[in-house]
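subagent[fold] <- orchestrator: predict structure for attached chain, return tokens only, no commentary.
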Amino acid sequence: MNGRHDESPHEHDRGLSYDLPVLARRRMIRLMAGAGLIPLVGCTSERETSSSPSSSPSSSSSAGCATIPEETAGPFPGDGSNGVNVLKESGVVRSDITRSFGDSAGGTAEGIPLTITLTVVDAASGCGTPKQGAAVYLWHCDRDGAYSLYSEGVTEENYLRGVQETDGAGRVTFKSVFPGCYQGRWPHIHFEVYGSLADATAATSITNTSQLAFPQDACDAVYATDGYGESVRNLSGLSLESDGIFSDGHGRQLAAMTGGTEDGYTATLTVPV
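subagent[fold] -> orchestrator:
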């Protein structure tokens, strides 16, 4: 890997070990549910749900609407749960997360342009009611697979992290770049949902933590462009079915994609909470 991402593989393996308690808990819940000991949220399993999250929230019935699967925030959240807390910094509320903000950081993340739109809806309403006034904190790695604030060479940067308040339609939109693929994980984006912008910027009262997955065709197209060379090799040994997070179902976390490598992509996902 290049100088921006000199982390040894065991550092990202640490991320997987950090994830295992959450994975174990989710799988135990599913086993218990299968035995009739506890109910699952919603009537549809993750694998039975359509992989296209771009349909209108109002088209979902209460029986078929389940909350977004809970996932680990991983070892690089920047929300104060593992060291640094970017959420309390002035400037974190923004839609363009390609650049770092503040006095000590000035870098810009390079890569294929990516617009990310999440629509937060009320699961109890059958996904028909948008969650206006909620907030989303979103973060992901850069083209080299490095996480700002944590990875060697970018600890002074805070790009590819930002908070937005949901609008009247429950939407937040971030301008970013397509993340790289690092060893051991399928390309993804982390996000946390908060009840309000005040909660998010105080780093309190997270209501949901999950991850967005990218379709393979978009990943293949992006990684064939300049600057994503390491991602080609790392992706070749992975699949959504073998990924430690998405292997137990990814239908409700798989983004709908439009666009291309010339003008950039748009990823959309409905997030029931």
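orchestrator: received. Logging for downstream: Strands lie at 113-122, 129-130, 135-139, 161-165, 171-177, 188-194, 206-213, 256-260, 264-272. The longest strand covers residues 113-122.
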